[in-house]
Amino acid sequence: MTIASTARRNRPGTAPSGGSAVRAGRPRRWDREQTLTAFVFLAPAAVVLGVFVLYPIIDAGYVSLTSWNGFAPTKPFVGLANYLRLAHDPEFWNSLAVTLAYAAGVCVLSVVTGLAIALLLDAPLRGRGFYRTVYFLPAVTSSVAAAIVWKYMLDPAGFVNALLGQVGIAGPDWLQQRWLALGALTLLTVWKNIGFNAILYLTALQALPTSVYEAAQLDGASLWQRIRFVTVPLLAPMTFFVVIQALITSFQAFDLVYVLTGGGPRGGTDVLGMFMYRTAFRLGDFGYGTAIAFVTLILVLGITLVQWRANGSGRVNGSSKERP
Question: Which of 18, 102, 283, 300 would you call most buried, defined as having the most Cβ atoms within 10 angstroms of its Cβ?
Fold first, then answer.
């Protein structure tokens, strides 16, 4: 064997010989053992996921193509008739508009209030642990109990109107006017989750590098400028997560709506969850109700994907993948 042939064989980029290629393409024994071990550990979780998540989704998808009433032994297949019925149902379009308005209000207020409280709790205050506990209490409060308390507070003779009366303002009937009722429901939802959002933002704030703030302060940036141009951009991934959580909460809303307004007045708070419940469990049209649930799922997935792309997810620091 000559030196030239040896150099040609060892030169970078040169394809290996036939035997080497075969050996390189074969999975080694320890690779197979690791793969088998991974499958063994993942199998229980995969079974639980398949039985309690994937199978119900597939079965519900089939039910949405039937006219089942929830009790009959047979499920008459109607194809896409339920989805075509949705497209011409004014109640569905009203419910969709109400849900979108409700979700927009919840998302915006969740970000603003969560970030504001997190900034306050991150400040060097005495008794911060106490304040954190107080702000987190709504998150662990029963939704039904919270809705009942708010319903009494917003009653025409309740606490809110009594407080307004002390300053000479005649309070309205909050839960009997369409937009006021929707606003009250939005505020209740934001209040219920304010502690959770604040903790998320507080965790993200404490993970930010202090060197960035020190550099901004040396450059003469004010407190507001540091929050606007440093804190808010660095918290973009957490803001995206908070928005998605608020969006899912809004589209899944039922208990707060059921107790506070019951979907009224005149459909003013009839969100998709309430519309689906009334259709399936009160009217007994489970096929149509399941179709409403699937449309809700598709809407949430679609809006999430749009936000994911708009947020620049999948790129490093919201820009390109190239690192300096």
Answer: 102
On the 0-12 / 13-18 / 19+ scale of CB atoms within 10 A, 17 is exposed
Asked if residue 110 lies in contact with residue 246, where contact means CB atoms within 8 angstroms, the answer is yes
C-alpha span between 194 and 115 (Å, rounded): 10
Distance (Å, rounded) from C-alpha 199 to C-alpha 113? 11
- CA 288/CA 281 separation, integer angstroms: 11
β-pair partners for 77: 66
What does the alpha-carbon distance between residue 236 and residue 233 come to, in Å, rounded to a whole number?
5
Radius of gyration of the chain (CA): 28
- Domains along the sequence of the chain with CATH: 56-88+284-312 (no CATH), 100-270 (1.10.3720.10)
Question: What's the pTM?
Answer: 0.82
CB 290 within 8 A of CB 66: no
SS3 string of the chain? CCHHHHHHHHCCCCCCCHHHHHHHHCCCHHHHHHHHHHHHHHHHHHHHHHHHHHHHHHHHHHHCCECCCCCCCCCCECCCHHHHHHHCCHHHHHHHHHHHHHHHHHHHHHHHHHHHHHHHHHCCCCCHHHHHHHHHHHHHCCHHHHHHHHHHHCCCCCHHHHHHHCCCCCCCCHHHCHHHHHHHHHHHHHHHHHHHHHHHHHHHHHCCCHHHHHHHHHCCCCHHHHHHHHHHHHCHHHHHHHHHHHHHHHHCCCHHHHHHCCCCCCCCCCCHHHHHHHHHHHCCCHHHHHHHHHHHHHHHHHHHHHHHHHCCCCCHHHCCCCCC
pLDDT of 124 reads 81
Handedness of CA 127, 131, 133, 134 (dihedral sign): positive
Residues of the chain short of pLDDT 50, as ranges, are: 1-15, 17-22, 314, 316-324
